[in-house]
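Researcher: Before we compare anything, I want clean individual predictions. No alignment, no superposition, just each chain on its own. First chain goes here; please echo the sequence and then give the structure tokens.
Model: Echoing the first chain and its structure:
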Amino acid sequence: MDVLREAGATLEDVDRLAVAVGPGSFTGLRVGIATIQGLALARTLPVTPVSTFEALAWQARGATGAIAAWVDAHRGEVFATLLAPDGRTVLAPATALAPEATLDAWRGALAPFGGVRFLGDGAVRYRDVIRERLGARAEIDAAAPRLAAAIGWIAVTGPDRAVRPHALVPQYVRRPDVELTRDRRQAAAKP
């Protein structure tokens, strides 16, 4: 509401919403998506879903090398994807691996690119691993990402991407801990 007030606007002036659909924390994604769905349903507004990776890469527009979007996945892992300078995904699907394993998996894909710009809290957290493995080829953007601004700009420039609120789908890269724990317990209980 502060942003609307600063812009001299009200909620009634809003004709479209946008939301990060992940990857990120399971609870954070669920809360964010549910909040936007509630607002969108109440006002009958479309919603533009935006990947966290896309929002990070938007901040590197104009880059000349590869773009590595790394989100801290906790448990010693990063949610990661590698993008070409034009934003096209180089490796799919996104992964949830240890930083070292991520860089090992990317070894061949990084070869055509001179440098790699790393963005996201995962890159900041594991910058020592990145520098150890890639040296001067790696540029680590330590600035706090402006995800909300990027998501807003992506939504404004891509109105054809908007969907109805019920069509929002979180982008999970790994299964939730609760499912993993349940499966381990079920496997242990089998004779």
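Researcher: Okay. Second chain, same rules.
Model: Second chain and its structure:
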Amino acid sequence: MRNVRSLPWLLTLLLLLACQAGVAAPEVSRQQESDREVVVLLHGLARNNMATWLLGQRLEDAGYHVERIGYRSLKASPREILEEVSSQIDNCCSTHLITVHYVGHSLGGLLIRAYLQERRPRNLGRVVLMGTPNQGTPLVDHFRDQWWMKLLGPMTNALGTGSESFPNSLEPPWYPVGVIAGVANWGNNEPWLPGPDDGLVTVEATRLEGMSDFIVIRTGHGFMRYDQEVAQQTISFLKNGRFEREQEQGEPPPAGH
């Protein structure tokens, strides 16, 4: 009965992945404008560069030069994906004297953390992680034995909450990082996503030890890339090192809590 009840949610997930998957051929602009700070922008699992076009445009409108990094994620291992991403970032941005910021949605945020852990670039500015499963997602734990999980590739199966998972293999950040979590009403998904969540990642799973700031926005996981408030908060953190809050909201939660 558990599998029957979860079928509508499963079909929705597979449909979202199928609509966005495609072939994510690398797409890195070779033209650099030396008078603008750079934002390296990474999409999430089973998506391509088109998934970040609107967020990229909003960052451009805010005065940044944006480098969108594309990568294939459904058939490659975590190490293979990281090598592909690292090569592109090295080629576009590693030697710039100007400040380079990083923004990643979902898996893109984990890849940014892995890249910065290995490279430690001197021109690093600030980092924003959007809907990133920094502690892994219990969704993977719950459905790991299902046949369709194998179709989603080794990276998907490495995103669980276990100590050997890809997220939990990463070190705490040594750089300023702001974390944006989403909250959306996706029906009764409590058995596999306990607590508030964005449909794929729980709010708790996005929290990161050593994070500089943290904010929750009412939006779904996939829609986060198009959400205007998410874009505004991303720009705020890149410029000021903190998210914007209304006076009545009080102080942000302490980092790491």
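Researcher: What stands out in the second chain?
Model: The radius of gyration is 17 Å. Additionally, Residues 40 and 63 are 14 Å apart (CA to CA).
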